[in-house]
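Troubleshooting: if your tokenizer reports a length mismatch, compare against these two reference records.
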Amino acid sequence: MKNIRFDFTCSRQVPLYAHLCNQYLNYSELNISIGCDGQHDFGQHSYFIEAQGEQTQLEQLADAIAADFLISAWLIDSSIKAIDEPQGGKTLLPFPQSGSSPAIVPFCQHCYPLIGDNQSAKFGTLDLICPCCKGETQLTPAQKALTLSDIKALAQWLLTQGPLTLAAADDLQISLTPFAQPLSERPQLLICNPNTLNAHFCLNDAQVLALSSIEKPLICARPTQEHDKLSAPLYDICFAYSRVILVLGEVLRQKGVDWVYIKGPHNRPKLAWVDGAWAQIASNDLGSTQVQTKHFIAPEPLREKVSLHGYHAQWQAAKRSRSHQGELSVAVLAQSSEAAHAANTFAANAGADNTGVANGEIEHAGTQHGDTENHTIADAALFSALLKGKFTSHRQAKNAAVIYLSHTHASQIVTCDNKGDTELFFALPELPDNGYEIFHQLDCSPQKAVAQKFKSLFPDDYLKLLSLKLHGRRDNLQSLWAIAAILIGLNPQDETQNQARLSDALMAAAMRYHGANAPRIDYPLTKGEAHRSLNWCKTLGTVLSFRIAGNNDPSQLAFAMQDSLADYLSNWLEHIDLNIGVHNVALAGNELTNETLCKRISLRLGKNFPLVVNRSLDLDGDNLAVGALYVKQRQLNAHD
């Protein structure tokens, strides 16, 4: 008789794995025990199944587990090992469920081949009962009423009449041609034929596994070069994620369709590959049926509840606990109640008294859009990231820094000293909102000579720069990348593209570069009264000087901008380390979707500092509300 243990180590909670562990308690052939290490903590969750038996029995169990435990985007390691004594038990593992449905996923390894394979006799039977995943319970009455003939008719309409709206799938819009996208949105594709994926996109193994995972996320992908149909620099792509979409996708695949454009409330989580594993950008990408409240054990914060930027976090002391630990919960605020809730929470505490502080609530301050002196959001990103480490058991967060890069809030580097006090070290400057002013400032700086040479050598790109308009926040990398994309010739179209598309063009170009070396782009600091910023004229002047000198490879220059920035970040952190001592560097913000920059940061910074990403939370979403519980300032800036 042998005792063995199957481990599935995940970077965050995976409800399906908890559900499967519970089901294996019913495995009658062997004595089974289950458990989950780190179950209520921030950070890794290790689900395990233990069994005692003979070799043949254990091999059969191993085959069954291998078939049942589908890949999760959050899975970071799995193993089988011999043990002396079981550590688990017979208690069912708790896991969050959404709405009234007992289902965790819409389909699984048991029902997928029956519903989604056109050779199956059950193909298109949406309400097929699955004893494993119970996916049929997620269906609405309208979805249950759909027959295979109905779905084939929808596919035919798409092929002959044009775009369609799926009333039975949350009004998802589907088209064979691109939608007119809002300025800030990347085109999104549903992949109908996974077998042709590599013919259309440049993907690595981790991306393919994530697309196939039970979470069915949106992954940023670059189309193959000179693709005749995919003209955007980058796309957000996903696989079929519901029973309706699964069958429709298979019908379209049979008709030779490899992908379709999608738009609307598909509720796919957007993921980014940060320091060797996946992280979610923001939970509010999910619809109300997908969002669960997250629960953690956490140290006592400075306030007990916070509503911030669409999220609500609160902390409650554990009964009979002397360790100052309690339960921290965070969830997306419901759309309908969000504005009223925020107004009630913050307006009630706007008076001169201190009731807001007593209640532990943070007040939105009515400060201006450009107030970069306020670093509360970056502070919150730092504290929420540090909850993953020693901060969980020791209340004081100290000797750390955060690199917070966002196009939603101010992009900043904030430090935390050995007393737990935070200070703004660096903030990206607000760039001019039009190309005329951008060129004027270059022309009035020491970069005048290269600016004039650019104007004479590349008149088309000069005119495209003049017609550039930057919208929304401009103190971010996206705006800097957009300007640089024009300067290095990445806007071949007649009209100037919007900043999101231009930024994507620069990131896609950087992803194409596979050379061994690249030029060094300058990112010089400017010292203001309170914090440092970037001399962006010098940065863009360096880029121009390389192009004028004959570097006609935009992918090399685009890569150089990412690599050099990572190198400068590393140098800045070493400088901070000499002053206050840096034990951890936290990474956060939605600009971490930049694959090349993330890789270079891991390479450049990771060799000198432990990098911290709290994958239990978002990169730029619920993490801010959680971290705000621990921020010392009373006021939170509503815009920064």
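Reference record two:
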Amino acid sequence: MKDRFFGTFLVVISALITYTDKLGFELDYNFEYNSTTNFIYALTTTLSPIILAIGANFRPLRISFIFPIFIYSANLFWVLSDNKSDMGYSYHYAFAVVICFILLILFVDKFIKKEKYYKNKVSLLEALLDLKIAIHEK
């Protein structure tokens, strides 16, 4: 159970580290970037999927994936928007993406459960028929 919570923690942290460029600290060396915030944003957007992949191997709670999906989609809408000084409606669009993601997961989960139910029903009927044939053969 500790592994699941550690994985959940890593998944949530993978989303939240992309906002560390907003903390407002400066570095002496920016690795040839224009500013510290650009360097930190590039670094954290590179590290974030790696941390997410590591956290996903610990079988985190599925609800924790809402955080990276929200953050990544908000960042995507911000990158594609005209106004780079403000997030604008990016959070609203990201919220809509999260809702669509949740609905998709619920739909797929229901479909998988239905398929498992029918597979179990068919295998049970096959087993009963095999048993009936075995009883009548004796």
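Descriptive notes for reference record two:
- DSSP finds four helices and no strands in the chain.
- The radius of gyration is 24 Å.
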